[in-house]
TrEMBL record:
Belongs to the short-chain dehydrogenases/reductases (SDR) family. It comes from the Eukaryota. One of its GO terms (molecular function) is oxidoreductase activity, acting on NAD(P)H, oxygen as acceptor. This is L-xylulose reductase. It comes from Microdochium bolleyi. PROSITE patterns: ADH_SHORT. InterPro entries: NAD(P)-bd_dom_sf, Sc_DH/Rdtase_CS, SDR_fam.
Amino acid sequence: MAPLAIPEFSLKDKVLIVSGGAQGLGLVQAEALAEAGATVHVLDRQPEPDADSKYQKTAKRVKEEFGTSFTYHQVDVRTGVDKLNEIAEQIAQKHGRIDGLLAAAGIQQETSALDYTAADADRMLGVNITGCLMTAQAVARQMVKNKWTGSIVMIASMSGTIANRGLICPVYNASKAGVIQLGRNLAAEWGQHGIRVNTISPGYIVTEMVEKLFEQYPERKVEWPTHNMLNRLSQPHDYRGAAVFLLSDASSFMTGSDLRIDGGHAAW
């Protein structure tokens, strides 16, 4: 006898938007949303994912195995505010609903505070905070306008709560603290419309970007796992369930919260 599914976790018939969903953590979480039944619209800044990219392979798998779809939209969350609103409106008109957003677009830069330029700081904050706000705003406008309830999830970081030992990224950490606080304030404003807003704070994730970092700093590959209680680094798939949980009815009474998933890094 097959195990019974928990219906609250189903995303069947839901229409969800994922920013930064063409690669890395965003792509893995977007795939999980589709696997749970959602129709997924992916936003990213590159003109079109390469034909042999992980995105294209995932989109094909989503169509063939899950019977739903990935639709790609090119937009820069920092500079394309008008386009963000156009895309959200188009999705709303096409499906007659938008059920949620996973805002995963973000950048990182490792530079000491004494060496950070104003231009680099503005770019970091522009993508990680302003871009996050503008994306959430575009989606929430459609939801409020059409009286649709739903869930917005924004990717923050454990670095929004702690200062990482041995990792010099002051503006990144400040930006992720801003995302956590932004989530609380959006939850306070939009709760009256039935829109929940939460954040996810991952620990160190082994992505392609981090693998390249380990080539430059091999000692980190050995040291970083010792900073948490599980003595290992996380993989993008470790956050699949969190995305499904927060965008599904399983978290229907959760808003204004930060879900920290860091292997116990900040619990020492």
